[in-house]
User: Fold this.
Amino acid sequence: MIRTQIGHKITDTHRAKLAYVYIRQSTPGQLVHHRESTTRQYALVERAVALGWPAPRVQVIDEDLAKSGAHAEQRVGF
Assistant:
C-alpha cells in the first residue's frame, strides 16, 4: 500500500465504506478536447485501490459526463 500524507490517515473504518469516484466534464466539447482530464479522473479509481480499497468497492459515477453543472436537472449521477 502507498504511504502518503493522506494514506497514513486512512483507516480500515474508511476502507470498510464504498469509495466513490465522480467523473464529469461540463460539455461534449470538453470530452473531445480535454481527454486527458477525463483519463485522469478515471485514474482516481486506481488511486483508491492503491490507498487500500478493494477494486469492487470503488464505485464510478460518470452519468453526468457532458452535462452542465449549472442545474441539477438531467444529472442522474448528481
Q: What stands out?
A: The mean pLDDT is 84. DSSP finds four helices and two strands in the chain. The first strand starts at residue 19 and ends at 22. Helices lie at 12-15, 28-33, 35-42, 44-50.
